[in-house]
Amino acid sequence: MEIQIGDVLRYKKPACHNNRYEGGFLNFHFMIQKTDINRLQLEKGINPAAAIMTSDCGKVRPAILVSTSPNKKGTAETPWQDYYDSDNGHIRYFGDNKEPSKDPAQAPGNKALLAAFRLAHSHDPLERLQTPPILFFKRVTVDGKAKGFPMFQGLGVINSIELVSQWDNKLQRSFTNYAFDFTVLCMMKEHDTFEWDWINARRDKNFSVLDTNLKAPASWNLWLKEGVNSLSKARRRVSKLLVVKSEEQKPQPGSLQEMQLQSIYSFYDGRKHKFEALAEWVAQRVIGKDIGIYQQGWITRGSSDGGADFIGKVTLGSDFSKVELIVLGQAKCEVLTSPTGGNHIARTVARLKRGWIGAYVTTSYFSDAVQREIIEDKYPIILINGKRIVEEVSKFLHESEEYQTINEFLDFMLKSYPERLKQREPEEILNA
Questions:
Q1: Span 332-350, average pLDDT
Q2: Cβ neighbours around 206 below 10 Å, total
Q3: How far is CA 241 from the centre of its chain?
Q4: How many C-beta atoms lie closer than 10 Å to residue 259's C-beta?
């Protein structure tokens, strides 16, 4: 049975295992199937399944279910605040000790997680095989009801632990507890879908860990093979789902679009600095269409561009109720078969100030790594690849009665280039 991160389940009491859905939500008790052995529950914050004998790895805990209740944070029941950011592969979770005089390692949930941590960080692959999968849930409110609706938040491994002192506001006392930092694993190869049958198979008496792991996500098996050093590349990143592959940023091989883009590149070969005029024009069309009203500024002189090839501004709103954002543009006429250099983009990003937007225009394309860095660091920069350039030029020529060919249009852009050159500070555009 498959579920996805973000799916809300129904956890109803008393438990009913017969109905697949309860009130339109997948029934948690139906999903776990087995009613007689090794019960899985979400009654507490940390819910370890009882360890059972396997056929190949000795005694193993099938799974640990970890649940947080945001509506209870700061209460006597939960005098702390967990941090869930599964989209960026990170969860910080506070253990289940609340007693000031108690060893936090002896609290039942902490004890199970500490044991899982030791297995996960073993250098022996056979010991790592005994590590229980940790499944995350976050209780959400549905139709005003705060109980009985856990949202699935993924699968993970304990990355690090920390002994912390916490304060109970209600009881006005401090207590010692553990904070667990989890890495939420990527399931991109599974199309962001988790196969719960893997967990159910691990609950069978005398199950084989190696056989059942055939149903596990690829990231889990990668981590088992390579250890904790692989967690950074196995970590879930939603930005990976937003990354556009290089093939999708380039025209189809042998297509008219590819010929047109090659024609644009060849036109500017030997005078690539003059590509800035076309880049500014394309940025104006892209930004004006997708963001707001764009106003051209100028093209900077090559000797003093300081990392900017053209300057413009975007106006959102009107009259008194408006905001103006400076657009700092970078233009790169580059060979079509290699990705644009990350150092050039870094140079553009370094110039951006608060309230500025970057626009990076290239005849080439952007690598996965560059896109991920921009998405994860939330840089306000618009990426325009070669395919988008030729699309905008083709649309314009189709609508135009003045220009019949790409070269006619590029000749016009070339002639207008000198009068567009100015040596000014970017902030001056706000006075235009």
A1: 91
A2: 9
A3: 7
A4: 12
Confidence of residue 25 (pLDDT cuts 50, 70, 90): very high
- The CA-to-CA distance between both ends of the chain, in Å, stands at 60
Structure token digits, residue 24:
């339109």
* Structure letter (DSSP) for residue 89: T
* pLDDT exceeds cutoff 80 at 71: no
- Residue 41, pLDDT > 70, answer yes
Alpha helices (H) in 252-385, listed in sequence order: 256-268, 275-290, 342-351, 368-376
Question: What is the overall mean pLDDT for the chain?
Answer: 90
Q: How far apart are CA 400 and CA 409, in angstroms?
A: 10
Cβ contact 141:150 at 8 Å = no
Whether omega before 14 lies within 30 degrees of 0, making that bond cis, reads yes
Location of each CATH 2.30.280.20 domain in the chain: 2-238
* CATH code matching the domain that covers 2-238, chosen among 2.102.10.10, 1.10.3720.10, 2.30.280.20, 2.10.260.10: 2.30.280.20
What is the topology classification, in CATH, of domain 246-431?
Trna Endonuclease; Chain: A, domain 1 (3.40.1350)
Sequence ranges of the chain with CATH classification 3.40.1350.10: 246-431
Identify the three-state secondary structure at position 416: helix
Identify the bridge partners of residue 167 per DSSP, sorted by sequence position: 174
CA dist 382 and 239 (Å) reads 15
pTM (2 d.p.): 0.63
CB 298 within 8 A of CB 328: no
Which residues make Cβ contacts (< 8 Å) with residue 419, sequence separation at least 6? none
Is beta strand 134-139 parallel, antiparallel or unpaired with respect to 64-68? Answer: parallel
Cβ atoms of residues 348 and 307 within 8 Å: yes
Q: What are phi and psi of 17, to 5 degrees?
A: -95, 0
In degrees, to the nearest 5, what angle opens at C-alpha 371 toward C-alphas 370 and 372? 95
Closest C-alpha to 151, from 132, 136, 166, 130 = 136
Indicate if the pLDDT at residue 78 is higher than 80. Answer: no
Cβ–Cβ under 8 Å, residues 115 and 132: no
**pLDDT at site 305:** 54
Instruction: Look up tokens 């000031």; give the residue.
Output: 100
